[in-house]
């Protein structure tokens, strides 16, 4: 296992009624869409390595994702600050790694610049639900990209019991109402025994919770952003893995009042 852990958890969703309830969606300022924390270099090195050695596991894109991916890359480039110096088509990340903007699929290039995993969803052919058309998913929390690509939201959330037909309808209404200038976010939390960021799990794998207290809390800040030209939706995921001992007293006490699930196999 590879341990890449943050020192603190900046937001505990179980402590706040608005984020404790599903889906727990909140408004997000554009300036807060992309964030960088103390493990940026380590997470980015792992993403680069996974894209090189396990590309088919962590990257998928349908042809209809090409234009949104290019638009997303341009948006990411417009949001980078002076700590991302650019020389022509070469961008240098804050960790000193250079990224050639013409080196790969634009979705991969975008994901090699920011700490978030990036997914693209689109409502193709007037369908009722948004479909996952492309993703760089290097840090999955118990799901597998190959099983989800090309599928609508309801199918993507198999076998999540909480994702009922009513929940699916509520989420789709959020997608439909999403404005270009008004991104949204939510956060989740799950206890893990294994701190590894790449926690892929297939749908048919039984989920058996390990015995004993989990030593790590994993939390994702998931944001939704509509692209102005293609109208595709960007689903971005920033992942924290924090050892139990680094949670503050309020966060640990809150888990006693509002317990969360311990992940199963491989966790």
Give the helix/strand layout.
Blueprint: H1 17-20, E1 26-27, H2 40-53, H3 55-58, E2 59-61, H4 66-79, E3 86-87, E4 90-92, E5 98-100, H5 106-111, E6 117-122, E7 131-136, H6 145-148, H7 153-156, H8 165-177, E8 184-187, E9 190-192, E10 216-226, E11 233-243, H9 249-257
Antiparallel strand pairs: 1-8, 2-7, 3-4, 4-5, 6-7, 6-11, 8-10, 9-10, 10-11
Report on this structure:
There is one protein chain. With 267 residues, the protein is an alpha+beta fold. It has one domain (13-257). Helix content is 27%, strand content 20%. The chain has helices at residues 17-20, 40-53, 55-58, 66-79, 106-111, 145-148, 153-156, 165-177, 249-257, and strands at residues 26-27, 59-61, 86-87, 90-92, 98-100, 117-122, 131-136, 184-187, 190-192, 216-226, 233-243. The strands form 2 sheets. Strands 1, 2, 6, 7, 8, 9, 10 and 11 form an 8-stranded antiparallel sheet that branches. Strand 10 and strand 11 (233-243) form a beta hairpin. The longest helix is centred in the first third of the chain and has 14 residues, at 40-53. It is globular and about 50 Å long. It starts with 16 loop residues before the first helix and ends in a 10-residue tail after the last helix. The model has no long low-confidence stretch (mean pLDDT 90).
